[in-house]
């Protein structure tokens, strides 16, 4: 059963026969998401349209600055009469806007550009798949998992975005507030609330439709800023896990001496062992170099991600604690998405730590006692 499911998914997500890994569907999808929020380094990749993207970046940063200011302005404007749940909703939107703003700044740093460039043009398993059959096998598995995970995140983004944006519209419609003869002193519900002079966007149909129309691209922008960046980081972690698995396999498959009686490598065998140890050390250096670049580039991202996301998760739990159909429909998918991001990134980082720790035992288990002095020193250095 599992084999049949895997083969079915492999047929749908395996497009690894293209000439360049940049043409993979999951990379194209991630490039589109990151380009939407101006976080794909087009200039560094010699894209001829990078001037237009630069102008687009200025617009995005301006909008990202304006969103939390207008949201705080709404809280200040309605401080005396806002309900507890509406206050939580506004705090949630402010935190999301701040998180997106931080990621916009992060994605415009040189260390971020260097990380992406090394990931796509040096570290990707595409450049290692020809070295052995096992490399090709791991490359294929990581490729399929990356494709499946990218599609899953995109579907979750779409579902959450639709419910978050259109549920308030449905509430207004079902209460007859959008009819030709609405009741007096109406207060129209919006997906996100911003400062509006004289509550124009919340008390008049004209203002409502203006803000409703503006909220759709703004919500998409924030959703891409939250999920697109995390999706890219997850894809990078998949590649790191693939490299660690390949390194572990290469170390575990170092053969024992052919001379079973004496249990010592011959001169020719020691030469081969020296070559294999050197290849593994070089591979390990590549992994460490890339992980260091990721740590340097993503330190601020990781800190703010865990700080803000845990606060957001608490606010979301408060919002859905009302247990009404409206609260569950509006905040349920968002809660699932946020906890999914918190859990899967935490699990991925923990997997990297666990895989790295396993290498210690693998190196220690090498038959170093069968090697000559030079190879023993090499194993000691690697350990």
TrEMBL record:
Q: Which keywords annotate this record?
A: Membrane, Olfaction, Receptor, Sensory transduction, Transducer, Transmembrane, Transmembrane helix
Task: Tell me if Transport is a UniProt keyword of this record.
Answer: no
Positions in coiled-coil regions: none
GO process annotations (BP): signal transduction
Top-level taxon of origin? Eukaryota
Membrane topology is: Multi-pass membrane protein
Q: Give a GO molecular function annotation for the protein.
A: olfactory receptor activity
**Could you name the Gene Ontology cellular component terms for this entry?**
plasma membrane
Major place of residence: membrane
- Subcellular localization(s) per the UniProt record: Cell membrane; Membrane
Under Pfam families, the record lists: 7tm_6 (PF02949)
User: Transmembrane region positions?
Assistant: 55-75, 87-106, 141-166, 218-242, 303-322
The record's annotation in PANTHER family points to: ODORANT RECEPTOR (PTHR21137), ODORANT RECEPTOR 47A-RELATED (PTHR21137:SF43)
Q: Which family does it belong to?
A: Belongs to the insect chemoreceptor superfamily. Heteromeric odorant receptor channel (TC 1.A.69) family.
Name used for this protein in its record: Odorant receptor
Q: Which source organism does the UniProt entry give?
A: Lobesia botrana
Taxonomy of the source species = Eukaryota, Metazoa, Ecdysozoa, Arthropoda, Hexapoda
